[in-house]
Amino acid sequence: MAEQEKKRILQVKDLHVHYITDEEEVFAVNGISFDLDEGDSIGLVGETGAGKTTTAMAIMQLVPDPPGVITGGEIYFKGRNMITNSNAENERIRGNGISMIFQDPMTALNPTMTVGDQLIEVLRRHNKSLSKAEAKKQAVEMLEMVGVKAERFSDYPHQFSGGMKQRVVITMALLCSPDLLIADEPTTALDVTIQAQVLQIMMNLRDKFHMGLIMITHDLGVVAETCDKVAIIYAGEVVEAGTVAEVYLNPRHPYTRGLFDSIPKLDEESTRLIPIEGMTPNMSEPPTGCFFHPRCKNCRDKCTSQSPEMVHMEGGTHRFKCFYPLGNDQDEEV
Amino acid sequence: MGAMLEVIGLKKYFNVANGGQLHAVDDVSFTIEKGETLGVVGESGCGKSTLGRTILRLHEPTSGKVIFDGMDIVSFSKEEMRQMRRQMQIIFQDPYASLNPRFTISQIIEEPLKLHNMYKTAAERRGRVEELMELTGLSHRMYNMYPHEFDGGRRQRVVIARALSLSPKFIICDEPVSALDVSVQAQIINLMMDLQEKLGLTYVFISHDMSVIKHISTNIGVMYLGQMIEKAGKTEIFKDPLHPYTVALLSAIPSTNIREKRERIILKGEIGSPVNPRPGCRFAPRCPFATERCRAENPVFEEVKPGHFVACHRTDEMISGRLRY
Q1: For labelling alongside A334, which of A46, B66, B111, B164 has CA 20 to 30 A away?
Q2: Which residues does chain B have within 8 Å of residue A261's beta carbon, measured at their own beta carbons?
């Protein structure tokens, strides 16, 4: 399919989410923007507390309120603003339009119902005229597509291994052929050989159904395997984004570089790891200036007081938020 | 250097419901030299944590020998074992669960010193605690702080300081960095490697993360369903893996190197059950090269090249290149 024919299914524009309690206000998401076309996948990468899951929950309009408040921004799913949509409309979109899977498959499975009955229930809720027999037929077909044998249809979730449970959850998320699948650390609890199986299933289904995919992970390797685009998130901001090639081959933000330097490489002889010093900020009292400046090796005066704007590179989608990006030999301000 | 630890035919079976036996560790043998790190890798449920605990007799072995510094500690009495544990320590994955929330950092680090009557006076103990805090990168002002005031990385430093308090020679590290974010994980890995060099420690480093294992280990042992199926030097095992499971495992690791896309081997099927395992190779049901013999006869873990051990009936064909995925 030619580039211009791809339909944009999701636009997140300058999203802000705060968690507000009597004691404090936590600035969880601070102006995150990204787009996604049908059939494409984007990886949201960041450490614990960076705001990845909050962003996903905001897209689904499932941020727990209170304490969560979307304080600014727009989220367009197929042109409709999720934030101003009615609850009924968003209810329809969840499940039919957008599905989400989580790290722990048991959050999505009912332990007291057989897997088959749960799948039938989902199908018939979304299509009330569907007969039980027809729903069963569809559910079995989907299960077989992800490599779960038909004879397991009447088993309970606890009878499945972790990898098999996650396949059931993927099946459930895809039953109503959503246009967008949000996968929040879907393979983090799985072992590598099982992870490889599950990721391959997800990729096959994405291509088959032409879904958009948001892959939320802390694992840069998983993104490289599965995504076309990537956004690096730190303290509720996208600090660098672009195609996987743009960001992985030429990281410009010191945080991105720091993430790559922190992980041991498989195909290089071991040298000493270069950690990012310090720790992620407490976002109830965010740092002044650039949020990364207290941990940044390139930090200068300006970084401590002013917040950098997003810099867009010419001739591509690569962009980053830094006054003094890496790989800038002239050592000049951008 | 000489051997720090020799594990011979170690087994740990657990009784489970309906008269079954779970073969968590099933006839594992290996040697660790002094000052070396043996990385133990395998998928969850493969028995790597049970192996670590059984070596320290936190689980009583079903059978087999654990020879530590020349002594078979399986035959030790409780009191002898208690004394021996000064030299053998363990660090767990979850620093949130392994620290008493009502103790200050200094009390936590001091506790083993008290239990083992290591110093006569409180002042001497305090000196040792301060020394340990400095060694593990904990600043002096944290002396009277509580674990909940610390992030995961600092808590793991406290756990390490406590493990080092009795000057052990040998530490089993059970997924010590798996709960940490990558930037903090790198700090802890560097610390552990520095401490090993400074104090001449020997590690067993248990992890499911191959890239961490490769970084920190001297030798790597791969476990599958209670058995060690391959062990070799880390460069050797990455360059020339001989067990079909190791080959698949290495190929399945997601890589950040987008310039060189490697061929992935996607295994079929699930990991089997360790309860009353059937005879034959444990990997046979997922192995594309399995023969009748593999399904009937358990392969022996043997040295096929200097320092390179494999348990597979088809190793000769693997070495000669006749077997390929």
Answers
A1: A46
A2: 186
